[in-house]
Structures are given as structure tokens and as C-alpha cells.
Specification:
31 strands; NBAS_N; 48 helices; four-stranded antiparallel sheet; alpha+beta; elongated; WD40/YVTN_repeat-like_dom_sf; WD40_repeat_dom_sf
């Protein structure tokens, strides 16, 4: 806490300072122990052990007091006050390295090393140490180069670590110890000192280890080479009761030791009487010599006799308070003064190296020695813990701030920076209060570190039903004198006898939560302290500093403003008190409160600071950069009285206000504004924009009451500065038509030319009926209806062109990004819309809705809404959308079909697509649901097109399948009430064309059914066209009968084939050949009856259809098929169909009637010979079955003409060749130039 400035004496000027917490270490809850930790060990050691230990120390102390020269380390009784003071200190230790570069914190089980580079915030090393039962009796010391850290334990062991916490080596105490005896605290280290002595190349430093019983050991140490004992020394003669502190004076190489004073020696110097001595280092044994003057040397020769020494010993009263001594000391930065702390609480300042007393203060003479922290006195709960935490009021630690100021730390937690002359506290009227018993370090970089521990005792809670009989009341409770005496008696008996009978009741354990902190107290400048006070939110003190040192108080109000919630109060209390105009306006522009009312208030506050009065003041140079609150009505109505409910008075007030505004405007030349004036106008325009947007947002949220609950400051932060066109587009894309309606109403000036483009950004999935109120329309006169716009307030003076164009000379195209994303919308950009543009937009938007969302119903709905609003040219679009709607929602067309593709399709393709989605079961129903409406639509647009479409559709279907055609003709029967095709001529014409168009051979049954659906010939008068159509139907029926015959015999042919081949002789002949040959190649041979049935059907085909060929040709074809069927029985059957003799003129008596007309003899010979030759040529040898078939064929001709005989001879020649062993194919025999040559070749063999 900074004190007031004192200029009486520069050496005693108050110090401006600040506190910073570098680190804290919360600890786990533990049981609090009020007494000395040594009491714990007593319970673990027997009474005999305790008596033995006490006896040994008493004997050694007695011998040391007699002056017997004991050259080895020996234990002793330490002064009770020394033990008490050390035990009052906190368990942890802190030590700062050279120049404050590093700091070590010795904790319970580790030593933590931190670096100055980041203000000791991060850990650079950590070393492990064992838990010590007496942690207050440990010490820390850094080597001069900060490479080694020595850490002592209460048993005298010294561990040395490097900078990262790695243990380098451990030095054990050489004092003999007995594990069965209690720990002797006189073996603990009183001082660890790294001297400036350079032992050599192998060793980097010298380490002095001084124990409390007066033993000194010098070690040469090195990080790599470990340690070696250099020499040892004991201070037994000078300090029989041990030493309390030791320090090293580097300039004079003196070792300054403090301990129990020699108050009985009147000839001794003051320093010796106080227990302070100096020892010079010798190069050889005994290594140290007490520095004395002549008087001391003379008194030394006149030493006391043995009896006098005995009488001076007071072993039975070790706690005699008359024996004061030194337990802590510290050299000043210039090494000329030494501060010592005494057991009694006395503070002494000595000159060094003379050790002459400079000044001394007893505890009672020290200012504020008995003060207690207000945190304890003013807090009743903490006041109860005072006697647990503050056991005395002595000084516990000392260090130097500078050569004229010392740092004092008391057990109460008081830290003072005191003058060495007057002990005046330079921190102010009161000390800086740390937690009780803090430790302090030397000063570095204008500050020092303090280590404190905060102890908190949780509130006691007694569990219901808990058994507390074994526990005694807490120490916090008041007890009577009799109770205290009884407890004391039990304690004494138990201590002496160790009998459990006398064991006192256990006390209720007191739980404590400890938190250690590393705190820096650092001097600072007023500016630095001012900044820190603001950072620490100590605004009252910061304002006092600002007033005292003439600092900028705006910083306080700025921080308060930043930390506070924006409201009317915070604006009035903080923002209005800030003078800097640019900062205030920046806050009004940039800060967005979470409350809509506060947001509105902040913007209006900014507008009050940017009005005409401020603009005029800036132009005249009268503002000084200050924020000026303007009020046009200030002083305007003086000496006037107005009735708030009188319209005339209100009109008069408005006139006066406008007159003042015009007067102020006349003082401003907007063409020559300076930079500050332009900035003011720019800020005002921006504030107006934010205010308008805020009101718009409030309206969007549902009004004043709803906006108070739904206001989102994060959204408004974006919305207020957002491009208004982009905001409108965003609302459109979010399908928030109400918000868009508000935007277009109150910001229509900037949105009107982009109206259609904005509407195009509505989500395609949003039904147009939701935003139908935003759709443009045309009135009955054919004029486009304009949007009804409004404004939030009367136009401000800064919004007129004379001001706006100066501040914003370059106008930004707000809709540029909109048209960059979609250049097609550019054609709809217009400040004045026309009917043609609206019609084009509706069509475009319907296309986009269907293309992006595939929601045809939404596109159709938009077109219907356009028609309702008087938009022309949408009828064709409506028809196509109706078709698309039917395809999508009724026909369930594939998703791949787009509306654009549909519009580019021909009407026939549309019809085909529509009906392709109908199932066969629903086809008849869908003819009337889908086809008829679509054909009607086409007929309406193009008269006569429906018949053409229907004919083409049926013909196309018939080419591949008659199934759906049959359903169409069934729906067109003349007997139906509402036939699909009403005109009989049209029906017959389409049917004939469809039946002959089919390319499939398996549709004969369906064709018959279609014919059955056709109207029958009537007897009445008919048109010539209808008569002709009926004749064509009769012809069709004959063709169907022929197709049936072909189908029965495995030679399927479509109707169009029969029609086309009816007059083609060659085609008809081939058909007959195929028909008969197919029958001969069947897997199951035909019976004679089946062959005869085939013969009759062939004659029927010839008679009914294929009259282009003769019946004789058909008979020859049939006979030839029998001869070539490779079956003997069929060949024999063929004999009944031919003339077998040249003289045969009449059939035999047993020949059937249908065999009466036989094949003529010449043709018969030809057919037989051809079949025989085919069998002969295909034979492999004489024994081949085909050779037998050839003989059978030849044997059909009974009169054996020459050609037949020649073929028979050829077959006989094969037998001769076989007899002579000639292996040759029959075909080779036929192909030989002469059969005789072949026979000759055979005879030679």
C-alpha cells in the first residue's frame, strides 16, 4: 500500500511500492500441531532414551563451559529462546541466487527452482529431498555462479543440486549419532556459505558448513568432481551453548559468528557481550583465529579460576532470559553494516569489520512491535486462530533494502522497510501485512521476495452419533484453573512413567489448509504503481495517486468502464467522466452491451457527444480533444413556459430548436472541415447507422418487451455494421420474411433496387405463400405497385449530401457481392420495376425453385401467386409446371428429370414419359387421370395435336408390345360410355397401323384381342373410308390366321412380315422351305399324321395368303423336306408323293386322297437324285448310315433311269474299293476325274 510522499529527508523518503504474487502452492489438508515438532519424536523414544540424550548434552555443555579445549564436534544444549524462535518460522525456505537470476524454494519433499526470465512463474528444476521432521531447521545457499544449490537437513546432512534439480552429491554430518536417541537439533546447520575463495582448477568453490553446536567444516566442491574436506574447526570455547548465526564478509575474508553473549565479562567488547565475534581465516591450523584488540588479549590472560567458572554455570536454568543471543544476521549491500536479531527481540546495527555498535533497539523501542494485522483483529473467526499462528511478536527475519534501509519481518507478519537511523517505516504509516512468520530475501532489481503461508481452519463439524469420549475439548475452548491443574498433573505422570493409565485424553484434531505464496515487494514509480493499482482494481487509491502526482485520471474511469456492465449508471459514473473524446467515441462505437436498453443508451450518449455544438467547438479549437456533451435545448427555453399538452407550444419549441440548429449549421463550412471535424461526422453517421439498425433489430425481435428478453448482443455486433443488402439476403436465405419486410420498410432507400434479387435468395424449400406479402404486383391499371417505405427518425443534419459526401466521397455498391455470386440477377436490378421485368423474374424464380429444390409444387405456387398479382405471360409456364407436378407427385418420375429438361422435351416425349410411370394394373385408370388431361392441354395450345400424339404413342408402344395397346383399345370400345378414342375411323386406322407395326413374334394372342375390341361392320350407310378400313381388317384377320399356322409349326413371324411377303414369291418360297425343314429337324420325329397336318397347313397358307406361288411348288418343297429329313420312314413317306415310274399315270388303290396330286416324274427323279447325292457326299465311308439313306432315296424310282443307275454304280464302286483296301472318302470318289482310273489303281495293289 503506497504511502504519502514525504520530502523531509531523502534518506528517509517514503517508498512507493507494489506487491506481486509470483506463485502459490495450495497444500492438502493436514492436522495442525501447535507445539514443537520434537514432541512427536518423544512419543517414539523411551523415557530412558530421552534421559540419556539430555544427560549427554548436559555433560558436553558443562565441559564446553569450563573451557576445556575440545577439538571435535560435540552436541550441546541450545538456548530455549533460539529453539522457540526457529520453531516459530514457517516450514518452507526461500533463497535467491546471485543478481536474483534464480530462486530456490525448499518445500516439504522437494526443492523447486525458478528463473527470473519469466518472473519466477515457471519451474526450471526440481530436486527431491526427504521429508524432514524439523523443516524449520533447514538451510539453503546458492553458489556465486548459480550453478550449485546447497540444501541442509535438520540432522546436518547437506545435499547439493545443480540448476535443474539433479542431486550432485550429499555431505553427511560427522557428529556421532545414536538412532535410539532423539534427534539432536544442535547438529542442524546454522549456516551454509559459498565463499569467494577459488581452490584451483579442479574445484569451483568453497562451501562452509557450520552447525548450531559450533562445528565448522570447509569443503572444496565442484559439479563434476564432487567434494572433499578442506579443514574443520570448532567454536566450543567461545560459544559453549552453540552459535545462532554466521555470515561471511568477502572483502576482509572474515567469518562473523553470532551466539549467546558474554554479559558477565565486563572487560569484553560490546560485540562480544552481545555474542558477536569475527574470525580471521588462517592458511594453516587452527585455520581460524578470533579477531581481538589489546584489551581483549589482556583479559584473556586473566581468565577465571575453575571455581568461578563452575559458579557461573547455570545448567539447571537453561531458559534464563538474561542470556540473550543472536540468531539471525545480515550484511548491508556495501558490506559496511551488519544487522543482527536477538532472542529477546532486540535489533542491532554494527559497523563492519570493526563490530562497533551503530544503533540498537530493544523490542519495546521498535515502532509498532506489538501491532497485529487488521485481518486478525477485525475478523472474529481469524482472531480465534491468532494464538495458534502468532506465538510471539519478535523479529524473525532481516535483510537490507539498501545501505540505509533494512527489511524487517516479524512473527506477526508485519513487513517494514525501516531506516537504520530512526527505524522509521518507509512503507507508510503501517507495515505491509504478510501472513505470520514470513521469510524475506535480499533485494534485487528494486524489490525482494517474501515467502508466506496462509493457514485456514475449516469450520468444525460434529457428526451425529460420533463418539467423542476419547477426545479432550479443543484448545480454543476456555477451561477452569482446576481442569488445567488436573491435565498438567496427568501430563507430568505420563511423561515420567509412560504408563497408559495416566495418558491424557487425546485432543480433537484441528485441520488446517495451508497455501504457500511467493510474493515480490518492489519499489515502483508513480506511473507504474498507478497502472498496477488500476490492474488490481484499487480504483480509489489509483484516483488518489492520480490527484497527488497529476496523472491521467481517465485511465481509472476507462478501466472501471471496461470492467462494469453498461447501464445508465455506468455511463454516468464512468464514461461521462472520461475526457478523451476519441476514446469515448470509440467505446460508443465498439462496445456492445448485453442489454438492448443499455445499447440504445450508449449510442444515444455517443450522439450527444457528436452534435453540432461539438463540431463548432472543434472548428474553433475550443475543445482540447475533450468529449463534449451537447444539448440543443440547453438554455433555449429560459424565461419561457410551455404546456407539454398544448400542440401550439410543442410546435413553437420545435421551431426554436430548428432555429438553433440552423444557427449552428451556419457556422460550419462542410467543404473545409478539418480532420477532427470529419472524424466527428464519420462517427456520428456510424452511430446513427447503429441506432437505426438497433431499432430495426428491436422491431424484428417483436417489439420493446420481447426484445428485452431475446436481444443477442453477439448477433447485433455483426448486424449493425453488416452490409444492409447482405443482411437482407441473409434473412431471405433464412426464410425470415417478417424480418425482411421490416428491413425493406425502414431501409428501402438502399434495398429498393435490389428487391427482386433479394427475393431470389429465399430458400427454394420455403413455400412462396410464406413470403407472398413481399412479392411484387401489378395493379388494375397495369402499373407496378411500389413498396411502402418508412423511416425511424427525421433525417439528421449529418445525413444530408453536403456532409455525407465530404465524409464518404466514394459511394460503395452495396449489392456488388450479390451480383458477383449470381450474375444472372443483374437483369432484375432496377430502381423502377416494369411489368416485363416482373414476368421474367417470376419465370426465372420458378425455374430456380424447381432446379435447386425439386419442389415443383412450390414453383407452381409461385406462378399462381404471380397470376393472382396481375403478372402477365405466365400461362405456358403454368401448364408446364402442372405437367411437372403430375410427373413428380403422381407419376413418381426419377429425380434426374429437371424442369428445364421437361420444357425442352417434345409433347410426344412428355406423353411417353408420363405413361411410362404407370403400372400395368393402374394403366387403364391412368389413361383418364394422366393422358387425357395432358392431351387436352396440348389440344388447347395446338389444336389437332392430341390425335397425332395419341396415334404416335400407340404405334410406338405396338412396336415392342401389345399389352398396353390392348388396354388403350379396351378403353376405346364403342360400348363404353366414355371411350378414349371416340372416332371409329380413327380407332380402326390406329389399330391397323399398330398391329402391323409390332416387331415381335410372340404378340399374336394380344393382336387377336385387339381385333376383338374393334367395332364390327354395320349394315347402315358407311363412308368409303370406313368400308375400306373394314376390308383391311378382314385382310388382317387372314394374316393373323397365317401367323397362327406359322407359330404352330415353329416358324413365328410378325404380322408386318406376312403383309410384306404376301406378294413376294421368293420370300414365300423361303418361308415354306424353312417351315418344312424345321419340322424335319425336330428332336422328336414327326408322325405320318403330323407330317400330313403340316402338308395341309402349307396348302392353306398358299391358298389364303401366298398365292404368289403355286401349290405344286409347295408340294415339291414339302417332298424335298421329307427326302432330306435323314429318316428312312420319312423318305418312304415321300415315295407316296412322287411319281416313281415314267409310265405311272394313276395313283395306286391304297394311296390317300390327299396324295392324288403327285410330283411329276421328272421333278421326282431330280428331287430323289439331289437327296441321294447329298447323303452320299456327307458319308464318311461305305458303312455310314447316310449311305443307306442314299440307296433308299434312289430305290424310290422304280424304273431306274440312267442317272439313278449311275449313282447306284458309284455306291457299288465303294464296295470294290473297300475290298481292295482303298481308304477314300465317298466325296473324293465323286470328285475324281474318272472312276475307272481309281479302279485301276486299286487293281494294281
Amino acid at each position: 500500500m503506497a504511502s504519502e510522499v514525504d520530502v523531509e529527508d531523502d534518506s528517509e523518503s517514503n517508498i512507493l511500492y507494489d506487491l506481486t504474487i509470483h506463485a502459490d502452492w495450495p497444500q492438502e489438508a493436514e492436522v495442525f500441531n501447535r507445539g514443537h515438532q520434537r514432541e512427536k519424536s518423544k512419543s517414539n523414544v523411551s523415557l530412558i532414551g530421552r534421559l540419556t540424550s539430555g544427560t549427554q548434552r548436559a555433560i558436553w555443555t558443562f565441559l564446553r563451559t569450563l573451557g576445556i579445549p575440545i577439538q571435535t564436534a560435540s552436541p550441546c544444549f541450545l538456548p530455549v529462546d533460539l529453539v522457540k524462535l526457529i520453531n516459530c518460522q514457517i516450514n518452507w525456505h526461500v533463497e535467491v541466487g546471485s543478481e536474483g537470476k534464480v530462486v530456490a524454494i525448499l518445500q516439504d519433499q522437494c526443492v523447486e527452482i525458478r528463473s527470473k526470465r519469466d518472473n519466477y512463474e515457471s519451474i526450471i528444476g526440481r530436486g527431491i529431498v526427504p521429508r524432514d521432521p524439523y523443516p524449520q531447521w533447514r538451510h539453503l545457499a546458492w553458489s556465486p555462479d548459480n550453478t550449485m544449490l546447497a540444501c541442509s537437513q535438520s540432522n546436518g546432512t547437506v545435499d547439493v543440486f545443480d540448476l535443474v534439480g539433479t542431486q550432485l552429491f550429499s555431505i553427511e554430518d560427522d557428529t556421532p549419532k545414536d538412532a535410539s536417541l532423539p534427534l539432536d537439533l544442535s547438529c542442524a546447520v546454522a549456516g551454509l556459505i559459498f565463499t569467494d575463495h577459488k581452490p584451483g582448477e579442479k574445484w569451483s568453490s568453497e562451501l562452509l558448513v557450520v552447525n548450531f553446536h559450533g562445528s565448522l567444516r570447509s569443503y572444496f566442491v565442484d559439479r563434476d568432481n564432487g567434494f572433499v574436506l578442506n579443514h574443520s574447526f570448532v567454536f566450543n570455547q567461545q560459544y559453549p551453548r552453540g552459535i545462532g548465526a554466521v555470515t561471511y564478509h568477502p572483502e576482509t575474508k572474515l567469518l562473523i559468528v553470532g551466539g549467546i553473549g558474554s554479559y558477565g565479562n565486563e572487560t569484553a567488547t560490546k560485540s562480544v557481550q552481545e555474542g558477536l565475534t569475527a574470525w580471521r581465516n588462517l592458511s594453516d591450523y587452527p585455520h581460524y583465529k578470533l579477531v581481538t584488540d589489546y584489551e581483549q588479549d589482556s583479559s584473556k590472560n586473566q581468565q577465571k579460576g575453575l571455581m568461578k567458572r563452575l559458579t557461573s554455570i547455570n545448567l539447571l536454568n537453561r531458559g534464563n532470559q538474561a542470556q540473550d543471543g543472536i540468531f539471525n544476521m545480515c550484511l548491508s549491500p556495501d558490506k559496511k553494516l551488519l544487522a543482527t536479531l536477538h532472542h529477546s527481540g532486540k535489533l542491532s546495527i554494527w559497523h563492519v569489520p570493526s563490530l562497533k555498535l551503530f544503533h540498537t533497539w530493544n523490542q519495546e523501542d521498535q515502532p509498532g512491535f506489538d501491532e497485529i494485522s487488521p485481518e486478525f483483529t477485525e475478523n472474529p473467526r481469524r482472531n480465534k486462530t491468532l494464538r495458534d499462528l502468532v506465538t510471539c511478536k519478535n523479529l524473525l527475519d532481516v535483510n537490507w533494502w539498501n545501505k540505509q534501509t533494512i527489511i524487517l519481518a516479524r512473527s506477526t507478519g508485519a513487513i517494514t522497510l525501516s531506516s537504520v537511523k530512526t527505524l522509521k517505516n518507509l512503507l507508510g504509516n503501517s507495515p505491509e501485512w504478510f501472513e505470520p512468520a514470513p521469510r524475506v530475501t535480499p533485494v534485487h532489481d528494486g524489490g525482494f521476495l517474501g515467502l508466506e503461508v496462509e493457514s485456514k481452519f475449516p469450520m468444525k463439524r460434529r457428526l451425529v452419533g460420533s463418539e467423542d469420549d476419547d477426545y479432550e475439548d479443543s484448545d480454543d475452548e476456555d477451561v477452569s484453573l482446576v481442569t488445567k491443574a488436573a491435565r498438567f498433573s496427568k501430563n507430568v505422570l505420563y511423561y515420567v512413567t509412560d504408563n497408559e493409565r495416566f495418558q491424557p485424553p487425546r485432543k480433537k484434531p484441528k485441520i488446517v489448509n495451508r497455501t504457500y505464496r511467493l510474493i515480490c515487494l518492489k519499489s515502483t514509480t508513480p506511473e507504474e504503481l498507478y497502472a498496477r493499482k488500476i490492474d488490481n482494481e484499487e480504483y480509489g487509491e489509483a484516483l488518489a495517486l492520480a490527484k497527488a502526482y497529476n496523472l491521467d485520471s481517465d485511465l481509472v474511469y476507462q478501466r472501471q468502464w471496461k470492467k462494469s456492465v453498461v447501464s445508465m449508471a455506468s455511463i454516468q459514473d464512468y464514461l461521462s467522466k472520461i475526457n478523451k473524446r476519441s476514446w469515448v467515441l470509440h467505446e460508443c462505437l465498439e462496445r456492445i452491451p448485453e442489454n438492448i436498453d443499455a445499447t440504445k443508451e450508449l449510442l444515444e450518449f455517443g450522439l450527444r457527444g457528436t452534435d453540432l455544438q461539438a463540431l463548432v467547438a472543434i472548428g474553433k479549437g475550443e475543445d482540447g480533444g475533450r468529449f463534449i456533451l451537447c444539448d440543443l435545448e440547453e438554455g433555449l427555453y429560459e424565461d419561457m413556459s410551455f404546456d407539454d399538452f398544448n400542440p401550439e407550444d410543442q410546435r413553437r419549441k420545435e421551431e426554436l430548436r430548428k432555429e438553433r440548429q440552423e444557427q449552428l449549421l451556419s457556422q460550419v463550412d462542410f467543404s473545409s472541415l478539418n480532420l477532427e471535424q470529419r472524424e466527428l461526422c464519420r462517427v456520428r453517421l456510424k452511430l446513427l447507422q447503429y441506432l437505426y439498425r438497433l431499432k430495426t433489430y428491436e422491431c424484428i425481435l417483436g417489439g420493446e418487451s420481447a426484445a428485452a428478453e431475446r436481444f443477442n448482443h453477439k448477433f447485433f455486433q455483426k448486424f449493425r455494421s453488416q452490409n444492409i443488402v447482405e443482411a437482407a439476403v441473409e434473412y431471405a436465405r433464412n426464410s425470415d420474411w417478417k424480418a425482411l419486410e421490416i428491413l425493406m420498410t425502414y431501409h428501402g432507400e438502399k434495398l429498393s433496387e435490389h428487391r427482386l434479387s433479394i427475393l431470389s435468395n429465399f430458400s427454394e424449400t420455403t413455400s412462396p405463400s410464406e413470403y407472398k406479402y413481399l412479392l411484387p404486383e401489378v395493379n388494375d391499371e397495369g402499373m407496378v405497385v411500389d413498396w411502402n417505405e418508412d423511416e425511424w427518425r427525421e433525417k439528421d443534419w449529418s445525413e444530408f449530401d453536403n456532409c455525407r459526401l465530404v465524409v464518404e466521397p466514394t459511394q460503395i455498391d452495396l449489392g456488388a457481392s450479390l451480383y458477383e455470386e449470381n450474375p444472372e440477377l443483374q437483369k432484375f436490378r432496377a430502381k423502377k420495376l416494369t411489368k416485363e421485368v416482373l414476368s421474367e423474374w417470376y419465370i426465372y424464380q420458378a425455374f430456380e425453385i424447381e432446379r435447386c429444390s425439386r419442389l415443383v409444387d412450390s414453383a407452381l405456387e409461385l406462378i399462381k401467386l404471380g397470376l393472382e398479382r396481375g403478372i402477365q405471360g405466365l400461362n405456358d409456364m403454368l401448364d408446364d409446371l402442372v405437367t411437372m407436378e403430375m410427373l413428380v407427385y403422381e407419376c413418381n418420375v426419377e429425380d434426374t428429370l429437371t424442369f428445364e429438361e421437361l420444357r425442352q422435351m417434345a409433347d410426344y416425349d412428355k406423353l411417353e414419359l408420363i405413361m411410362s410411370k404407370s403400372t400395368e394394373e393402374m394403366y387403364t385408370k391412368n389413361l383418364h387421370r394422366w393422358m387425357v388431361p395432358f392431351l387436352s392441354q396440348c389440344e388447347r395450345r395446338n389444336p389437332g395435336s392430341s390425335k397425332t400424339l395419341l396415334r404416335d404413342y400407340i404405334i410406338t408402344l405396338a412396336k415392342s408390345d401389345f399389352t398396353l395397346c390392348l388396354k388403350i383399345f379396351e378403353s376405346s370400345k364403342t360400348t363404353l360410355q366414355n371411350p378414349l378414342i371416340r372416332d371409329q375411323e380413327e380407332l380402326l386406322s390406329i389399330a391397323l397401323e399398330a398391329l402391323y407395326a409390332c416387331e415381335r413374334e410372340d404378340q399374336l394372342n394380344l393382336a387377336v384381342k385387339i381385333v376383338q375390341c374393334l367395332p364390327e361392320k354395320t349394315r347402315g350407310k358407311q363412308s368409303s373410308e370406313l368400308v375400306k378400313l373394314h376390308k383391311d381388317v378382314d385382310r388382317l384377320e387372314r394374316h393373323i390366321r397365317a401367323a397362327k399356322i406359322l407359330e404352330e409349326h415353329g416358324a413365328r413371324k410378325p404380322l408386318y412380315f406376312i403383309k410384306d411377303s404376301e406378294n413376294e414369291a421368293e420370300e414365300a418360297k423361303n418361308l415354306m422351305i424353312r417351315l418344312t425343314r424345321t419340322a424335319g429337324r425336330r428332336g422328336k420325329p414327326l408322325s405320318e399324321r403330323e407330317w400330313m397336318k403340316l402338308y395341309e397347313d402349307i396348302l392353306i397358307l398358299q391358298d389364303q395368303v401366298y398365292r404368289c406361288i403355286s401349290a405344286g411348288l409347295c408340294q415339291e418343297i414339302f417332298t424335298e423336306s421329307l427326302l432330306c429329313s435323314e429318316r428312312k420312314e420319312n423318305i418312304i413317306l415321300a415315295g407316296d408323293l412322287i411319281e416313281r415310274k415314267g409310265t405311272e399315270s394313276e395313283p395306286s388303290a391304297h394311296t390317300p386322297s390327299f396324295h392324288k396330286n403327285k410330283v411329276h416324274y421328272d421333278r421326282s427323279v431330280h428331287l430323289v437324285l439331289s437327296a441321294a447325292q447329298e447323303y452320299f457326299n456327307s458319308s464318311a465311308n461305305l458303312m455310314d448310315p447316310c449311305m443307306d439313306l442314299a440307296r433308299t432315296c434312289l430305290n424310290l424310282i422304280l424304273d431306274t433311269p440312267a442317272v439313278i443307275q449311275e449313282e447306284l454304280d458309284l455306291i457299288a464302286s465303294l464296295a470294290l474299293l473297300d475290298d481292295f483296301g482303298v481308304m477314300i472318302l465317298p466325296l473324293q470318289v465323286r470328285l475324281s476325274k474318272g472312276q475307272i482310273r481309281a479302279c485301276q489303281n486299286g487293281s494294281k495293289k
